[in-house]
Amino acid sequence: MAGPLLEFETEMFLSLFGCDGLLVVAEGMGVDRILLQFMRVYSEQGSLVLLLNTTKPEQEYFTEQLRVEGVTHLLRTVTSDVQSAERYNVYTEGGVLFVTSRILVVDFLTDRIPAHLISGILVYRAHKIIESCQEAFILRLFRQKNKTGFIKAFTDKATAFSSGFCQVERVMRNLFVKKLYLWPRYDELIPWQTFPSIHYLYTTIRHYLDPLWHQLGAKTKALVQDLKVLRVLLLYLTQYDCVTFFNLLKSLRSSQKNFGSNSGWLFLDSSTSMFVNARSRVYRVPESKKKLKVAAEAEKQKPGCISSSMEA
């Protein structure tokens, strides 16, 4: 049995449930549990939801999980074994359906599937949507015939977006979604929904500026270099421990070269806040010392202490 969602998993689910988008999580953070939660919600006769990009073992796993949890309207699989005349009845019965891409394309084109009755589509392994032409075509047909149904996409392969030009934008365009939810490995439950990310912003800028690089001024080059530094910081923040990240920050601050060549971001208040927070992740003050310090400060503020110090 999968068990209830954890706090951060609940945050993921509610965010995507409230607004269509692409959910990208770090590997091992349970993207399949989020997808399973959506299946629980829509496993009823009142809704028709299609699930794309799943393998047969995964379909069996999801079905078994819902069966163990007592879900009555279990997932159904539509393959070539189901006759074309019977498929319409299967669609109208509702619930979550596993349908092969080839059958879905045919049924959409022949209007065998009631597109206006589809509540939405769940897309697993969303990073493969560009490679898989059939799934992208299905989503296009669905959006043409149904303007209100939801599209929610899931993947835990963030590295798949690092290759190619504007890979995130291309995937989201093929998915017909406008919002991106990024969940890297954080110590705190802080969702990162920045779009486009610094990585893709830097890649895009370099793509356009490289042919003109020799014509750019020193200030422009410094700004681009700062983007590169911030991209490295973001990588260290999400992929390395707090000590390694803090050491990188210290090396940036102590380097005379960085102080002379950066565009000024090291002197901003946000930069100071970053250093303070990074240090607090490494060096934590015990609660007992915090209480003693607060008590000492409060003692100094007492009128008796003030008058005594003045008399002295």
Descriptive keywords:
seven-stranded parallel β-sheet, 14 helices, single chain, 312 residues, alpha/beta, 11% strand, Rossmann fold, 7 strands
Distance between the termini: 72 Å
CATH architecture of the largest domain: 3-Layer(aba) Sandwich
Number of strands: 7
Strand residue percentage: 5-15%
Radius of gyration: 27 Å
What's the helix count? 14
Here the CATH topology of the largest domain equals Rossmann fold
Protein name: Excision repair cross-complementation group 4
Organism: Amphiprion percula (Orange clownfish)
Keywords: DNA damage, DNA repair, Hydrolase
GO molecular function, one term: single-stranded DNA binding
Task: Characterise the protein shown here.
α5 packs parallel to α6 (133-145). The chain has a seven-stranded parallel sheet with strand order 3-4-2-5-6-1-7, with helices on both faces. It has 312 residues and is an alpha/beta fold. It is globular and about 70 Å long. It has helices at residues 7-18, 31-42, 56-68, 84-92, 101-109, 133-145, 167-175, 198-209, 218-239, 242-254, 256-261, 269-282, 287-300, 303-311, and strands at residues 21-25, 48-52, 76-78, 95-99, 118-123, 150-155, 180-183. It has two domains: 7-195, 3-Layer(aba) Sandwich (Rossmann fold); 199-282, no CATH class.
Topology:
Blueprint: H1 7-18, E1 21-25, H2 31-42, E2 48-52, H3 56-68, E3 76-78, H4 84-92, E4 95-99, H5 101-109, E5 118-123, H6 133-145, E6 150-155, H7 167-175, E7 180-183, H8 198-209, H9 218-239, H10 242-254, H11 256-261, H12 269-282, H13 287-300, H14 303-311
Parallel strand pairs: 1-6, 1-7, 2-4, 2-5, 3-4, 5-6
Helix pairs in contact: 1-2, 5-6, 8-9, 10-12
